[in-house]
Amino acid sequence: MKLHKMKWAVVAGLFAMPFMTNAADNTGFEPIKPDALADYRLSYDEMFSIANSHVLPHRIFYYPSVGENAEWFDAVKKGNLDKVKAMVEAGQSLEVKDTKSGRGQTALGWAAFIGYEDIVKYLIDKGADLYATDDADVKNALKSAALGNSAATAKVIYAALKEKQDGKVDVNYNTFDSDGESLLMIAASNNRVDMVNYLLSIGAKIDIVSEKLQQNALTYACSRGHQQVADILIKNGAVNFKTGKPAC
């Protein structure tokens, strides 16, 4: 079986899982095939690298949305800025949540995660809530971005938060995270190389430890085989808190 088909088989299998079904709406939606992805801005491989059965499966976005706001969320997930603009001008609410085919993300949450910098800019300019939550432990759009790998998108959100918070944005907060994870830990655990570099550039601390999970950014990267991320962290002074050594 070719790699592309193997990848799709993995993704398609997810639709049998409870969190991907929508029995309450009785929609019976089916996974779209790779040849039906032409209207998505990103390539299949790019989307697969952001979310798949092994990386944030609850955030897979490349299948048809369902529910009363399905058209809106499809426009966002596909990266269709023109349609997003048209729907907003026609009165579409920015703060509706994707509870039927997502985890309660708003449009900004989805765009931040996927990495559509232009859509993120547009939604922020239109007043989208930077602090919109979802039911998978996201408390603001910067965390949504940190779960993805678009440093450019994170930079836009960071600047917007700084403007809103008088120049003060704590990228190291982990108090409100249910597992005590910092943004850097989240990026490192998901092998987001660009995001790790960006977070370090704006002051992310490398030594924060999740007491609940007994992990820090370096141990996460090491335990999951993300050697490039581990090397970046070590170069920036990271120490494996379990061994006291700057190594996996």
UniProtKB/TrEMBL annotation:
<keyword id="KW-0677">Repeat</keyword>
<feature type="signal peptide">
    <location>
        <begin position="1"/>
        <end position="23"/>
    </location>
</feature>
<feature type="repeat" description="ANK">
    <location>
        <begin position="179"/>
        <end position="211"/>
    </location>
</feature>
<keyword id="KW-0732">Signal</keyword>
<protein>
    <submittedName>
        <fullName>Uncharacterized protein</fullName>
    </submittedName>
</protein>
<dbReference type="GO" id="GO:0004842">
    <property type="term" value="F:ubiquitin-protein transferase activity"/>
</dbReference>
<feature type="repeat" description="ANK">
    <location>
        <begin position="103"/>
        <end position="135"/>
    </location>
</feature>
<dbReference type="Pfam" id="PF12796">
    <property type="entry name" value="Ank_2"/>
</dbReference>
<dbReference type="GO" id="GO:0085020">
    <property type="term" value="P:protein K6-linked ubiquitination"/>
</dbReference>
<dbReference type="InterPro" id="IPR036770">
    <property type="entry name" value="Ankyrin_rpt-contain_sf"/>
</dbReference>
<dbReference type="InterPro" id="IPR002110">
    <property type="entry name" value="Ankyrin_rpt"/>
</dbReference>
<keyword id="KW-0040">ANK repeat</keyword>
